[in-house]
Design brief:
By secondary structure, the chain is α+β, with helices and mostly antiparallel strands. The protein is 20% helix and 34% strand. It is globular, with a radius of gyration of 20 Å. It starts with a helix and ends in a 6-residue tail after the last strand.
């Protein structure tokens, strides 16, 4: 349970449970929260798991297990990376933060143990040890163009000088806070990673400058740029090409788990499916798990849904066969015995 649960309980009504982490779906309306996130919104993002990987061989082993370049990362840098299995399917997408004597990995919700076991599976004689810190470290994500300026006003912590793909460690009232500016594949402007016991105090101090947003609005912010999520797009069924993770594959690096399959798919144009945006006037809850149909042919699956930014209708992500991918095409979403009209939208969605 979140250490901020008491605050959430007093100010929100509907909750979602993410692997034992209870978080509000919303505090106000989707439209109000989305507008707040354009300026200065904040999210209890403790549902993301955290791993710390230590040992002198940590860099070389992580490099051999992931799709992106890991070598020679300077302390204070971060990088999005993908663990893949021998079939080229995604185990998880993580953000790797290079600390002086370790890597801090931000995994998908509920995936820390999966990634930890994956690292341990391929650790033989190497000096590498992953530790699950999910119950020790919390995270507050800040959204909007005024995030850095308001963070400084609220806590006296500067985030404006931290460039994308970097982080700095600082302290506030004897609380060590890691201020992270994500490189990509994250809708947040800044992440504050801190001891979980200190979250209520920091959250309360931020309230004077930031508007809380719920998980539903976070999903809207994630879907708009087409960011895949675990248990939605990141499942064993899809490879990185199919779910928009192509930018995090380094085709110049050496071998890694799944490298031959991923390279062959790229070289021989064998990618069969693609991620596409979907817009519908139907309520999001009615579309969860729907299949996508075009001209009486099943084209693919609707994998994510969330309220549209204007508060009317639903936006979503779908993985469909490439032959059907054409923005502005009218499609039908089918769930159980019901059908709902929708349209394909190019990713990223326009405002």
């Amino acid at each position: 349970m979140s250490p901020l649960h008491e605050y959430h309980r007093r100010h929100a009504e509907h909750f979602i449970d993410l692997f034992g982490y209870s978080i509000p779906l919303h505090y106000s309306t989707p439209k109000e929260e989305y507008q707040a996130a354009q300026t200065a919104g904040m999210l209890d993002a403790g549902f993301f798991d955290k791993l710390r990987v230590i040992g002198k061989d940590r860099e070389s082993l992580l490099h051999r297990l992931t799709t992106n370049e890991m070598r020679q990362m300077q302390s204070g840098a971060s990088r999005v990376n993908i663990f893949t299995n021998a079939k080229g399917r995604v185990v998880d997408r993580v953000e790797m933060l290079a600390e002086e004597e370790s890597y801090l990995l931000l995994t998908s919700p509920g995936r820390a143990i999966t990634v930890q076991k994956w690292i341990e599976k391929y650790t033989f004689l190497e000096d590498v040890k992953p530790h699950d810190l999910t119950t020790q470290l919390g995270m507050i994500s800040l959204f909007g163009e005024e995030s850095a300026a308001r963070l400084e006003k609220a806590l006296g912590i500067s985030g404006a000088e931290i460039s994308a793909g970097h982080f700095e460690k600082t302290s506030w009232q004897n609380v060590e806070i890691l201020v992270h500016h994500p490189e990509a594949a994250n809708p947040a402007r800044l992440n504050l990673i801190l001891p979980i016991a200190s979250e209520p105090m920091v959250w309360q101090s931020l309230l004077s400058r930031f508007t809380p947003i719920g998980f539903s609005t976070y999903e809207t912010l994630r879907i708009l740029p087409g960011i895949p999520a675990a248990d939605h797009e990141i499942v064993d069924e899809y490879n990185p090409h199919e779910i928009g993770l192509y930018p995090f594959i380094d085709f110049e690096k050496g071998c890694y788990i799944g490298q031959e399959v991923i390279a062959r798919l790229d070289s021989y144009q064998k990618v069969q499916r693609q991620l596409i945006g979907v817009k519908s006037e139907t309520e999001a809850s009615l579309l969860v798990g729907a299949t996508v149909w075009l001209q009486e042919q099943e084209a693919g699956k609707l994998t994510s849904v969330a309220p549209a930014p204007n508060g009317s209708g639903t936006i979503g992500l779908a993985v469909v066969r490439k032959t059907f991918v054409q923005p502005n095409t009218n499609v039908v979403l089918r769930r159980e015995h019901e059908s709902f009209p929708a349209v394909f939208i190019k990713i990223p969605f326009e405002d």
